[in-house]
Amino acid sequence: xxxxxxxxxxxxxxxxxxxxxxxxxxxxxxxxxxxxxxxxxxxxxxxxxxxxxxxxxxxxxxxxxxxxxxxxxxxxxxxxxxxxxxxxxxxxxxxxxxxxxxxxxxxxxxxxxxxxxxxxxxxxxxxxxxxxxxxxxxxxxxxxxxxxxxxxxxxxxxxxxxxxxxxxxxxxxxxxxxxxxxxxxxxxxxxxxxxxxxxxxxxxxxxxxxxxxxxxxxxxxxxxxxxxxxxxxxxxxxxxxxxxxxxxxxxxxxxxxxxxxxxxxxxxxxxxxxxxxxxxxxxxxxxxxxxxxxxxxxxxxxxxxxxxxxxxxxxxxxxxxxxxx
Length: 325
Hints:
There is one protein chain. The chain has 325 residues and is α/β, with parallel strands linked by helices. Helix content is 32%, strand content 21%. The protein has helices at residues 21-37, 56-59, 66-75, 82-94, 169-176, 194-211, 224-230, 234-237, 274-282, 309-314, 316-324; strands at residues 6-13, 42-44, 97-106, 109-117, 123-128, 151-153, 156-162, 182-187, 214-219, 247-249, 265-272. Strands 5-4-3-2-1-11 form a six-stranded mixed beta sheet. It has a five-stranded mixed beta sheet with strand order 6-7-8-9-10, covered by helices on one side. A hairpin with a 5-residue loop joins strand 4 (109-117) and strand 5 (123-128). It is globular. The termini are far apart.
């Protein structure tokens, strides 16, 4: 594991093209090119950025959100698809690792999904948010432990979590125990106001300190015109503002560049991996500072399925007959 390198990272704060998978994808491809022009070797985008975060579910009651939910199905991303191929091609062309949030459609279900592309365009990881939060449970299904892994990439060992997954200490510890060097965090942005900005600040800085890794965090942003597209109710429009905090944090919990809390922009910083050793020399929470004889994490890393495959191995003929009917 190389701790002598330096990696330039970019966290993108950006607004989607509402209601358009293709339009938002074009913005992603443009941002990848801009990040590469700045010398970035890693670029991180917001939570479920393609086609857009389901803000409608935060301001509409379930009985009224059917139309918008259906529209999200129509614009959601399948994996693989022309969207993932385009992003992979861009990653390869610019030799840059890409972490991208999407609304993934898997037949009749949607998921909050994080994709990690390596600098050669390979899709290293497709993981789904393990527990959607509050209103999100009306939109997305649940992920599983198969996505709680750290992947080896051209820029180091990468882990990723979305939004309030960072409030699940065991989920974070699962990644920490795999010695992630760069943690890629994603939040929706433009929600709840300053309190959400403050909470993100606490969350990402604490994870950097506790894990002894870098945190590259990206949040989305909505313009006033986009907020008006989502709801015409002025009272509800107020809750679709603030809550942005795009930032890059070092292993000692410090900002490595000015954070972005409003508008579109790109936070860029150089990640000196020797700082990981400097931090962990003092406190390695999965090494010399851990007590596995007292406290251990048990992780079910098996992907779940609606069909138990043990049944198919025991009764293959019956399954074949059912499939033929």
